Here is the input.
Amino acid sequence: MESHIRRGADGAVVLDLAAEERALLRELAADLRLLLQEEPTDPALQRLFPPAHDDETLERDFRELTRDGLVSGRERSLDLIVETADRTTLSAEEADGWLRALNDARLVLGTRLDVQEDFDWDELDAGTTHGQQLALYAYLSWIQEQLVEAL
Here is the structure.
């Protein structure tokens, strides 16, 4: 596949994405931001906030102290995608924010789909609902890979 993200001569990250891709990324970021505002009872969200303690009391105290900061950092990265999706270039700092947001989206989606390391991508049938979600996961992975290479 041809790369749609690269490092420009001036050091900026150049985005050569179709309008549909940009709209998809904005929508995905907005959806994940809404999901983050809910209580983390969704197992997919729990993947974003793994337990820090085995002891329930310590874990609850830790969550009370850190959850707002962790959520606001994730929300800033998601907002950055929404705000910059139509740009043709990103600064290295903005691209790093994209990476963080895409990683969160992949973690949530991958958890919901139960993506395992041994998943056979050659057997993917994008014609099914599950297949479409797996295709989205693969697309996010591909965008993330290109950002890493550009940085």
Notes: The beta strands are 5-7, 13-15, 89-90. The longest strand covers residues 5-7.
